[in-house]
Batch of 3 targets.
Target 1
Amino acid sequence: MSDLPELYLHVRKAAHFLAWERPQFAKHFTLVDAPSPSALLLSFGPDVLEEAARLPARARFAVLFPGFSFNPLRNETTRREQLALIDEHFAQAFINPGPLELAYAGASKISFYPFSIDLALVGAGRVRTRLDSLLHVSHDNPQKDWQRSEAIMTRTGLAMEVFPPRDPLELERHARALDRANRIRRLSFRAARDRLPVGYYGHRQTVATYYRHDGFVHVARDVKHPEFIDGKYTASLMEAGATGAIVFWHDSYGLGNGLETVFELPLDTRLAAERLLEIRGSLDVARHSALTREEMMDTFSPQRSVSARATRMLELV
C-alpha cells in the first residue's frame, strides 16, 4: 500500500490540460476517483472552483488560469467571488505569471506555478535553418486580436498562415467531417469521439501545422473584455517554440518577457513587421531555433510544473 497522501483531481472543462499532468501528480500522490474527508482535493480550472468548495476534503487546493469565460482581471464580480471562495475554503490557489497575478495582487493564498504543455505530443522538434514562413494559431475570439498578427505577417511579405482557417464555410466542413466520422464509428460499434467546438481543430493537426512553418507570431493588445482573457504567453506560442519555431510576441500586460528566446514586437503593425524583418536579417536561425526548443521544453515541462505545486501542497499539509 502506498504511503503517498491521497489526492482527488476535480476537473471538468479543463480535462484536456490535465491529461499530460496526471502521470506527474501520480508520482507525488495516490490518485483517487472520488473526494473524501481523508483525501486532498485539487480543483483544476476556474470553472470548478465553486463546485469544489462544497466537496469534502482533508485540504482543498485550486489551479486557476485564464479562459473558460472567467476574467477576474476585468470583471470585478468574478474576482471578488473567486477570492472569497479561496479565502474561506482553500488552503492555496496556484496561478501562472500573467494577468491573474494582476487580478490577485496582494491575495494571501496565491502561489505561482509554471504552465505546462504536452511535450510528448509536441514531438522531437525540428531545427529551423531559415525564417521564410510565419504562423499564427488561435481561436477566433476578441481577446486573441488575431487580425493584428495577420496584418503583421502580411506586411512582412513572407509566406504566412492563420490557423485554424477563419472561413466559416471551411470550419463548418471540418465539423461535418468529424460528425460523419463519428457516425461511421457508431455503425461499426465503436465509441464516438468527443468533437471540439466549431473553430477548434484537433491537437495533433495543430502541432503538425507548427512544423510546416519557421516562425510563430502572436501580437495582441489587451482589449479589456469583461469575459475573454489571454495568458501572458499562449499555449500555442509555447508549443510552437517547443517544435523549434522562432517566436515573436507582444507584452500585452506589461509584465515583462520572461523567456530569453522569445522576440518582443511593438503593437503597431508596420513597426512590428519592420522589427521582425530586422531580426530575420541578423539572426542565426539554426542556433536560435535549437535554443528556443530547449528553453520551452525546460520551462514548460509537466514534471517541473507539477513538482512546484506538489511541493507547496505537501508543505501546507
Target 2
Amino acid sequence: MVRADLQIDETLAKSEPWTIGYNSSLKGCVASATSDDGTKVWIGFDGSVSDSEIPPYLAFTNPNWRSIEPRKFYKLQIQAFGSHRWRGYGSGVDRPNEKGIFVFGVKRSFLQEFAQTSQLVLSLNKEVLTRTNISGSSDALEKLTACQQHQIIASKNQRIETTKLVEEAQPALAEQPVADPELKGDALVRAIKQELKRVGCYDGRIDEDWQTAPARASIQKFARLAHLTISPAEPTSALLDAIRAKSERICPLECGRRQIEKDGRCIAKNCPGGFELDDHGDCALRRRTATRHETNEDEDRPRVRSYEPKWRARADAESGQSDRKKDVIPGRRITCGLNGCKKVPMGCHAVRQPDGGTGNGGKILCL
C-alpha cells in the first residue's frame, strides 16, 4: 500500500506541536508534527476501511532525504525509546519538496509506547535514519483516536441515512438515476489525474496543473490504449467518465531493458549460471577470459620459429671451433642417438656428433 498524498485538508484540533485533522484523499483522521531535526512524523488512519480495528499508518518525511526513491520498498526498524523494536517494510513516498517512508499496519500497542516516551528511532537497512523527540504525543494520539471514532460513527450514520433515502425514493430513482455532482476547474483536473494513476497511466503528482508534460503524455497514452477517437486537449467530465469506466489497469508497467515485472513492480533481471546480461537486457553466454598460460602459449607459437636461428647460432658458438662438425637440432624436432629417439622440448636444442663420439654428443641443452 503506497500513499504519496500525506496532507491535512481540514484542521480539527491542536495539541502543540501536533496538528490533528482530516485527510480527504485517505478519508481518515491524521496527526502531524515536526521534530527538531526537521523530520515530520505522520500518524493516521485509512478511512476507506470502516473498521474500528483497522491498524494505523506511520510516515516520516524530511526535505534532506533525497536518496529515497518513491514506490521502492525498504527494510526498516522502528523503536520507541525503551521499548521493543518493530521490524517491517516501508515504501518510499514523494511530497512537495520532501521525501519519506510510509509504513502501513503499525500496531496500536507500539503507538501507545511512543505516546509514553515521545521518542522514536527510525533505522533504514540497519542504519539509523533519524531520531525524533516530539512532546505532547500522548494527548495528540488521544485526539486522533477520538477523531477517527467520530468519523467511523458519522460514516455509518451516513450510510444508514443514504439507505433509507434510496429505499424511500426507489420508484423515482428507477425513472431518473441520481448523478454525481459535476466537477469543474482544479477539482476536475485532480480527479482526472487520480483516475489516470489508478489505471496505471500516470505516476506524477496529484495537483491542479493540467499542462505538465507527464500529464499530457499520460492522457495521450490512455487515449491510445482505450481507443478514444481524440486525445482531449482540455479537462472534461467526459474524459473523467471514460477513465472511471475502466475497472482494471489500462497502461502496462514499463520496465527498463535490464528489468522485469514482478507483482506489479520492476525488479532487476537474473540470469542462470554461465550467462550474463548484455547491453540489450538479454541473457547472453558469459564471455570466457583466457588464462595467462593460454595467452602466453598463443603469443609464443608464431615466434618460436623466429628464435630457432638464434638457438642454432648460440649452439654453434658454444660448441667452439673444434666442434664445427656437430649436429645441432632445435626444439620441436626429433633427435636420435644410441639410446633411441626423442622430441627436443621447445626452447632447447640437441647437440649430437655425427660419428657418435663423446663430449657433448647426444646432450639436450636448454637456454
Target 3
Amino acid sequence: MSAESRTGQPAEGTSSGGPSRRTFLKGVGLAGAAGLAAPLLATTTARAATEGIVLGANAGCWSPPTGTESWPQAVKNALGCRSYRDKPFKQASDFAGAIFPGEPGSKPVASIRPDPANLLNGDFDSVIKDFIATGMALAIDPSNPNNFAGTPQLTVWHEAGNLYTDKTAPIPKTNWTWGDFDLSPQTVRSMHVYMQDLCNQVATANPTLPRVEYGSIIYGEISKMASDTDSTHNWVPDPGYPLDWYGIDVYYEGDPPDTGSTSPHPDLATYDLVSQYMDGFLSMARNRSGLTWPKINVCECNANVTNDGSRPLFFENLALWLNNNGGRRMLTFFPDPAGPHSVTWEHVVAASPQQTIEALNYIQRTYG
C-alpha cells in the first residue's frame, strides 16, 4: 500500500500557485520578468546542517478553508511548500504556459507528470524549459510577496515504484489509467537525468537568475526503491548521474509486512529508529551523488490519528536527524481527506493542546 492515496492532493492549479496568482508573468518573457517539547539531543557524529532546515507543508495548508488557521499563521517563518501539478500530460500544448506551482512567499518543491516517451523524445523541451524559467523568474526578488522566497525545486513522477503500481486504476480527471504511462525503473531514471539536464540548460542560459534545483522522491525500503544490485528495483539515477537533491517521504507508521508494502518499517518512535531508517537513505544518496553530504529532503511526513501523541516527538526526531546529517528540507503532509498515515491540517490546528503545532514551531526556532 502507498503511504498516502494522494486523494488529498490539490487538484490541478488548486492551492499551488496557479496562473491566477502569477498574472505578472503572462505575456512577459523571462528577460522581462527578470526586470521586474523536544527530544534530548543525540551525540552528533555527523555534520550538522549549516544552512538550516526549510520546514514546510503541502500547499493546501497554506490556504485552508475559511476559519482554519493557515500554515504561515500557525508556524511562523516556515516557508517550505510541497506543490503538485498532478494531471499527467501527453501533448506539449497541454502544458504550454504552465506556471511553476507554489504559494507566494514560499520555497516550493514541485512535482509534474509528463508522458515519459514524449519527454525523452524531446517533444516537451520548449514548454518545460519555459516552465522552469517561470520558477527561476519567481525567485529573483524574495522581498516581493508575489514571488518565491527562495530556490524552487522540481521533480517528475514522485514516488515512482510505489505509486502508480495498479496499471488498471483510472487517473482522476483524465480518460487514462496508470498503465498508459511507462514508469519502469529504467525509464524513470532516464527521465530524471533528462530533466536535470533541462534545468541545467535553462540555468546556463540565464546565469544571473537562481536555478531550479532538480531531484527525485522515493518512498519505502531503499532496497526496493534504489537497489544497487537489482535494476528492476531502482528508480534513482545511478552513480555518475548526480541530482541536485534526493528526497524521500517518511511516515511514522510502516505498512504491515504481509501486505507486500514497499515500506514495512516499525513505528519510528525513537531517534534511533528514525536514524536506522534514514541512514540507509543517506548512504544511497552518497553513493549516487558522489558527495559525502548530499542535499537530503523529506518531502512528506505525518502520523495517523491513532498516533497523535507520538507525532510531535517523531517530527522533532526527524528534524534532529536532518540537522545532524546536512538535511535541507522537511515538508509535512496533511491531506484532506486524511490517509492511512496522516491527519488533516484542520485536525492538528483544532487540537487542544496543539502539541503538533508546538513541535513544529520548536523545529523552526531550533533548526530553521
